[in-house]
Amino acid sequence: MKKLLIALMALGMITLSANAQQKRMMKGKHPQHHKMAIAQKLNFSEEQKKQVKLNKETYKKQLQELNKNENITVKEFRDKKSALHKDQQAKMQSLLTLEQKNQMAQMKAEHKAKAEQHYAARMDKMKTRLNLSDNQVAKMKAQRGEMSAKLKAIKEDDKMDRVAKQEKLMALKTQMKDDRKKIFTAEQLQKMEEMKKGRMEKKTVK
Predict the structure, then answer these.
(1) Which own/partner contact pairs does 152-155 have at CB distance under 8 Å and 24+ positions apart?
(2) HEC string of the chain?
(3) In angstroms, rounded to a whole number, what is the distance separating the alpha carbons of residues 54 and 49?
(4) How far apart are CA 62 and CA 70, in angstroms?
(5) Alpha-carbon gap, residue 113 to 119, rounded angstroms
(6) Number of neighbours of residue 143 by Cβ within 10 angstroms
(7) CA distances for 171 relative to 59, 80, 148, 154, 179, angstroms
(8) Are 76 and 145 contacting, i.e. CB atoms less than 8 angstroms apart?
(9) Contact at 8 Å (CB) between 110 and 41?
(10) Tens-of-pLDDT digits for all 206 residues of the chain?
(11) CB atoms near residue 132 (< 10 Å)
(12) Total-model pTM
């Protein structure tokens, strides 16, 4: 039981994303530094900073107590951990003023716009390098929209616990890769592998 709980905890630390460009944009940024940057942009008051610190310490203690409990089932562990996470998020949201919430919404919108620009640039580069047809590009964009909708549905499903969601996300990621391969020709797939190999060799040299 203890080994299984440890495995679940490790799995819970994995952050998955359906958008590869978002991973690249966030690469190298520590989550804690990212949260601190947001707090600075939202101009937290001293009282808010104290409350955030208190909430984090309380949440950490609750998780530690939960991890020590070996008299519960795996499902109970998942449910309790998910409930603690939701409670923590709700507390953080309640600390924000209306102005700060509006700022958060604007920051999310700006981040989404940048991600879309980055994706468009990548698509143009891929179209040129692989000599993709307009039909292939259209299929890739349609697939991305479909996967984004499925991703959103999984994340917003309150009936699924965190581990179940991650399992669904992993399956979705695999499906996305398989479906994308069907769009390309054998020659294009081979060229993609060569490009991937070239990037890996450059990283090795560095």
Answers:
(1) none
(2) CHHHHHHHHHHHCCCCCCCHHHHHHHCCCCHHHHHHHHHHHCCCCHHHHHHHHHHHHHHHHHHHHHHHCCCCCHHHHHHHHHHHHHHHHHHHHHHCCHHHHHHHHHHHHHHHHHHHHHHHHHHHHHHHHHCCCHHHHHHHHHHHHHHHHHHHHHHCCCCCCHHHHHHHHHHHHHHHHHHHHCCCCHHHHHHHHHHHHHHHHHHHHC
(3) 9
(4) 14
(5) 10
(6) 16
(7) 30, 24, 14, 11, 12
(8) no
(9) no
(10) 444 444 444 444 433 343 444 444 344 445 555 666 777 888 899 999 999 999 999 999 999 999 998 888 888 888 888 889 889 999 989 999 999 999 999 999 999 999 999 999 999 999 999 999 999 999 999 998 999 899 889 888 877 777 788 889 999 989 988 988 899 999 999 998 888 888 887 777 65
(11) 20
(12) 0.58
Q: Which residue has the tokens 């449910």?
A: 79
